[in-house]
Every structure is written in structure tokens, then in C-alpha cells.
Specification:
The complex is a heterodimer. Chain A is α+β, with helices and mostly antiparallel strands. Chain A is built from 5 helices and 5 strands, in the order E-E-H-E-E-E-H-H-H-H. In chain A, strands 2-1-5-3-4 form a 5-stranded mixed beta sheet, covered by helices on one side. Chain B is about 30% helix and about 25% strand. In chain B, about 60% of the residues are buried. The chains are: A alpha+beta, B alpha+beta.
Chain lengths: ~170, ~800
Amino acid sequence: MPKTQVEMTVNGKSVEALVEPRTLLIHFLREQLNLTGPHIGCETSHCGACTIDLDGKSVKSCTVFAVQANGTDIRTIEGIANLDGTLHAIQEGFREMHGLQCGFCTPGMITRAYRLLQENNNPTEEEIRFGIAGNLCRCTGYQNIVKAIQFAAAKLNGVPFQEAAE
Amino acid sequence: MNDMTPTAEQRTAKLEGMGCKRKRVEDIRFVQGKGNYVDDVKMPNMIYGDFNRSPYAHARIKKIDTTKAAAVPGVVAVLTAETLKTVNLAWMPTLAGDTPMVLADGKVLFQNQEVAFVIAEDRYIAADAADLVEVEYEQLPALVDPLKAMTDGAPMIREDLKDKADGAHGKRKHYNHIFSWQAGDKAAADAAFANAEVTMKEMIVYQRVHPCPLETCQCVASFDKIKGELTLYGTFQAPHVIRTVGSLISKIPEHKIHVIAPDIGGGFGNKVGAYPGYICSIVASIVTGRPVKWTEDRIENLSTTAFARDFYMDVEIAATKDGKVLGLRCYTVADHGAFDACANASKWPAGLFSIISGSYDFPAAHCLVDGVYTNKAPGGVAYRCSFRVTEAAYCIERAMDIMAQKLGMDPAEFRMKNLIRREQFPYTSAFGWQYDSGDYQTALKKAMESVNYKALREEQKAKREAFKRGETRELMGVGVAFFTEIVGAGPSRACDILGIAMFDSAEIRIHPTGSGICRLGTKSQGQGHETTYAQIIATELGIPADNITVEEGNTDTAPYGLGTYGSRSTPVSGAATAMACRKIKAKAQMIAAYMLEVHDDDLEWDIDRFRVKGNPERFKTMTELAWAAYHEVPPGMEPGLEAINYYDPPNFTYPFGAYICVVDIDVDTGTTKVRRFYALDDCGTRINPMIIEGQIHGGLTEAFGIAMGQEIHYDNDGNVTTASFMDYFLPTAVETPHWETDWTTTPSPHHPIGAKGVGESPNVGGVPCFSNAVNDAFSFLGSTHIQMPHDHWRTWTAAEKLGLHAD
């Protein structure tokens, strides 16, 4: 199948590649760029394991063609940590509050939460639950994910967060 | 001692041993997207497999033409049953003693059954070409209702078994019959009913559901023709079993099979069995000489690999009129689909279903289970469950509520009256199980006090009166469930898989500098084993948990084990870990005695060291002893500091819990709001409370999904109508209730550290608790049992049937 040239910025680096027009963005990221952080859980946009940040929006990369991402700025879980290599507050929050178990939804969940906190830097529990409703988790029951996001919000806002993981 | 000397508390804290809410080791890689799951495995020259699947539930295959598929550029090979026959792999044995087709041979028996396997240079080409496999079918009538499976004239599912009067578990009564299995004393149970003052009887259905981990089943098979060796990466909850079964059916010697289960994205029982995708990938790699990757998509996952439950339980309880239970009877029809693909211990075709007498002191009980074939996906697996314990717990807990209703007793009071009492442990049930330990009344009492049960019932009474007066359209339900599990399979006298005793293992090596590695036969799928096993070692050996690497999933390096399911990791491998530690500790003690020039018996253990009794200033820490083990062992002693233990538990463990749920139901829309859910669990000794609570949250959420909306549903033609996330309910953060957790601690007397296992408890206890709450809301109107799942439509329908809606 003839290939199309695409150019995009992925985790701060510019990328040029040839892709088939039908190649899904998730397959392009995982298989051509070796960014295996985002996962495939359903291929129908329901589970959110493939969530990435595309031009400042949370996008499910299993239902976007790589060619549609031409010219965009993408961030995946691999690009969330701080520049000095330390964990971003949201990553730290997931560990501190036990917001993950098998880890499969985690990259998508964290990437979504990363954007959520930029959309709303001090969300209520209800806003968090609504804000991550596009990301399914089969292990945690979400309660500690909510806390992880609250932890990150507090840390980013420079206020103390007292609660512990349950 | 000076001020710098750490106190005993500081030394203990530094270990992060048992009881510590230690942060998880696994998380560092997972939060950075650096986990390594099967689909992340890339091998040079790798190709991809995909299936052509049956559109019909039941049809004869007249012809398969692979010409067009094979002609697609990039297609490497196309396998059909005919190809598999050349390597004698067209049919494969299951753990349950049945022999399913790998690829459809002559007939298809369920929708989406695997018909042909296309291998191509990339996954897109494989998918394209799979659609081009041309299959000519002659459709046959489908059998969907398991209660009609053994009727005259029912469609015959398994023509291959037509002449077989005996199945793997004895005589077959019908061509669609798989097994009959019974437990308990029928005569005693019948006698209890003959004299009973009050009896109840109800058909309780636990619908077909699917474990649905977020990562589907997948594998990469790589056969090295030169060495004759197979490397198989896969989503395996039981990697060693896969190796042994793989060797037995492929005839590749077991030492030439390397099975690797890397990080697994949830299992919940879905990843115990061996599926056609694995077999086809192995054959494809042997045929092509290249690594072959197969990954299920979600539709394939929900409609083919595994399902759970599908039990039709006709249950009866006999009691005195003042509410003392006398007898239990249950006749169950179990729908196993087209093949018996249970992942039970081999001798137990209905698993541990005879735990159905639950937490109550039934003097007599009997159960009989008939397994039948239907035109549905094969199974059923133990979805977050120790082999049919969930079905049993659901059945008895619903039945107890119905009986309480009949007696006019409060369901909590009725339970309290019949719970096995603390002084009766170890308690032998009417089915012969020996419950190891429990303090049930204390747990239920604590639960009732924590939620102020009395006040809830008063509020409910007031609301019911208001409802009758037409002042509200909302009904309040209070659900109570008290469950006892039987987990940790298992004692080898009771449990084996294909003849392999269900022990498990741990091998620990302590390095010269005092750190170490522990390898086990279990396999975490999110349970946090890398964190918790190290905590057991930390407490047992006085080595900080951070200095212990825990490794699982590589059959070349890990000692043989039966894997992780049925809440068996802590009861079995956790015990093996403690026992291996104790061997190491015994050797360390001899080394310490030699170094300190005292007798072994003059030493005592103190957190992280052996010290001389009565002279605590004289001691050797484990770090010093590790070095000495490689440096100055006593004369005649082997150097090194390592041990292995294969632990065959003397008994199962019996975790229990008391759950209470409050729901508010809008009778006009059927909308059910969970106002409150309180879960008290007793899993014996608690290794990592943070991980325990996390598992309970997750299991309750799965229970919420099952009770309130999940169902793998088939229409009358056998079409599966719930094979995507559009139709199969998985709770999001929005619907999921807030969980309140609590605990009591009753250690297992036979387990080295007293632990019982916990991961499945919330699924076992949660489902009946939700269902009891919904049913309780309607009970004052004369309703006895509304079948799960309690989605809005079913609940609205129940209200409609009770005449609660305006004409």
C-alpha cells in the first residue's frame, strides 16, 4: 500500500515518517516509534488505554489515523515526567495514592489526568470522576485514582494534601 | 549504645515488612509507561496472526477455500483444521478433561469460533486476508437455553462425543450432558426437609459474565528450528502449566519450551486457560520458522476466550419457624458452552461449589450439578473467584434473604442466629470442608454497628410508609451479605491440574552483600507481588524489602508453580516464601553461632539479627551473616545462603467478610443509586493494608458491574449481543460508588504467617450484597427474587410487574 509522509512533534522531538494512510495513530506510536506506553484495550474509543495528548487535548489514539496527526504536537506517557527525569506530580500521585494495580490503563489514565488538571487546576471529586469517565480501569475501582489526581492538583497548586491511600 | 543506635521500632520500620503500607515497586515503571506487556514484545522478523471466525452459532462447514486469502500480498500462510491435523493439533485437551477443536473441524459450535488462522507480514494484512477466507456453511438449529440442553430432540452440539457414554467425570445422561457431580448427604438433607416447619425454594441464576481484563489475551510464539526450542511469551496466569500442557500436546520436550509471562494487564481468570490463539501461533511459528504474534481484539475477547458463571441454581432451605436452619439442597445446571473449558482443579468439575452452605451451621446439605453443552463460547473460568465460590456465595446469600423474608425475620438477625460460632472452629461443614478459623458474629456485629444498621431499618420503614402513602416514588433497600470463601488451592490430596499437585513454590537467594532475589511459581497480574512477597521476606529475614527482587513469570528461572488464580498466591506461595525464609534463617543461625562462638540455642532472633540470649550487645545482623555465608562458613557447611520451598498446604484457607449496602431506587425509571457500601473483610494476617484495600475497591467495582449490569447475552439464534464495550457494562468512575472498607483479623492457624488471601473476597461478597439490596427494596411488596443484573430496565420491569406504575 502506498505510504504517506507525516511530520509531527512527539514528546518534544520532531518526527518524520512514512505511514500507510490506514495506519492508526496508536500503531504508529507503538510500532514505528516504539512508544509502547499507550496501550490498546478496545480499539473502539471506549477504554482510553491509548489516550495521548494531541495539541492540548486528550485523544484516544486507537481511532485516529496517523495521517490525521500530521503537523500536530503529541505527548505520550513517555513525555510526562519532568525534564530532569523526576516524576511529574501526577505520576507521583498515582504511586503515592495507590492509583494503579496491573498498570495497563495507567499510561492513558495519567495522560488524561495530566490534561484534566490543565483544564481545571482544582477539580472537585465529581469533576475528576466525570473528567476520567472515558478511561476504564478494571483493578482499582477508581477511588485511589481520584485521590492520586487530588494529590497532584494539591502538589501543583503548592498546597498540602493530607489523605493517604486507603 | 549511643543516641545514634536505631531503636527496635526504627529497625523494624526500615524493613518495610508485613503490615506496612509499602508503596509498590511495580509502579515506578508503570507510571512512566515502561511496563513490558506481551504486545510490547517485538522480535526480529516477527509476523502476525489473525482469525477468520464463524458468523453462526451452529453450522456444518461444507467447504473452506483459502485461495483468495493466501493470494493477498504479505500473507505468509493460512492454517485450517486440515493443516493442524498434519501436526496432530486440530483438537487439544482442556484442564477440565474435554477436547475442544483448535480450529473448527467439520462444524462450528459457537459464534466467533476460530475457523482459520491467517499469518501475514503485518496485522492489517492479516486482518484483511482473514476476511477473504471463504467458508461455506449449512446452518443448524442453535441450542441456547441450558435448561433445554438435555431435552429430547435438542440439537446435538458435540457429534464427536456421540458414542461416548462416559465423560471425564463419569456417566453422561444425554448427548449434551458433560458431567454430574454431587456433594453432601442426600438422605440427611431430604430428612431435614421432610420434618421442616418452614422451607424456601427459588431458582437463582448467576448470569454469564466475562472477566474482561483491560489487556486482552495475546502471545508471541517463536520456534527456533535449529535448536528445536520454542519461546512463548504470553498473557499467562499459570506459565508453568502452559509449558507442561504445551509440551504434552506439541510433543516438544518440556526443557525445550521457554514460557515467559511478562507484565500482565489484569487477568481475573481470563488468562488461566490455553486458547486456540496460542496453539495456532505456535504451529504457525513452527511452519514458518518466524516469530508469530497474536493479539485478541475486544470483541474476540468478550465472545471467545473465557466466560464465567452461567449457573442455574435451584436452591432450597429448610428451617424451624423460629429461624434455625436445618437443611440445604441445591440442584444446578451449569452452562459450559460448546466445550468444557473450566479452569478448575481437575477432580472438581463444579469447582468448590460445595462451599454453598456458606457461613452457616447447616446440619445437613446436598448439592448436585449437571454440566451441559450449548452453542456458546466455552468455559467457564473462575472470574476473580476460587472455582465456583462466587456462584455458591451468591446462591446461599440470596437464599438466606428469601428465607428470612419468609420467616418474617430481619436478614441480619437471621444470619446472626445461624452463623457458625467462634468456638466451633475448626468447623467441619455438612459438605465435609474443614473451615480453618473464623469469628463471624464479631464481624457481622462490627459491620452492623459501623453502618448503624438499626437506624437504616428505621429509615427504610418510614420510607416504605411514605411510599405507600404516595409521598415518594423512591424505595430504599438494605443489602446484607456474609460470605465465606474457600481459597488457596490447594492441598494435593484434594487438588491437582492434570495430575500435577497444586502446590506452589518460592526460591530465595541471599547475595553476599545482604540483598537477594526471590523467584516464585505464581504470576502477578496487578496484585503487586513484587511488593508484597518482599515484605514477607523482610519480616522473616530482617532484610529491607527494598533489597529483595521478586521475579515471576519465566519458567526457565522460576521454580515450578501452578500460577495465580483462586486467591492462591498468598495462601500457597506466600507460605512457600515464609518456609524458604525459615530454612535460610536456620542456616544463618548456625553461622551466627559459629561466629559468636556460642551454641545455636543460645541465640535469639531480634528483628534483623541473631543476638546472644541475655547479652544483646553481642549479635550478628543478617547483612553480616549473608557475607559470612560466602566467606567464613563453619567447617563442613556448604557455602551460600539460599533455599527453595515447595509448599503443599495442609488445608484451604477460609477468608470471610460482612458487607452492607444501601440503595435508593426510583421505581419510575429503575435507576438505582448506591448510597453506601461498607465492606468488612477478614483475610487473616494483613501483609500490605494499602494493597488489600486497593484489591477490595477493585473487586467491589467488578461486583458492582456484575450485579448492576453485566451480562454476556445470546439471542435465540446464538448470536452474542454483548461483545463490545458498547453493550457490555464496565463501570466508569462516574457510576462507581464510594467504598468504605474495614477489617477484623482472624489468622489462619495452619498458614505459616496466618494469611488467607483477599483478592477475590470483594467479588464473592459484593455481588450478593448489591443484589440483596435491590431485592430488599421490593421485598415488602411480596417480591422474593429479581434476577441479576439489576440494570435500570430490569429494575423498572420488576416495578412494573409489581404494579407500581400508573396505568
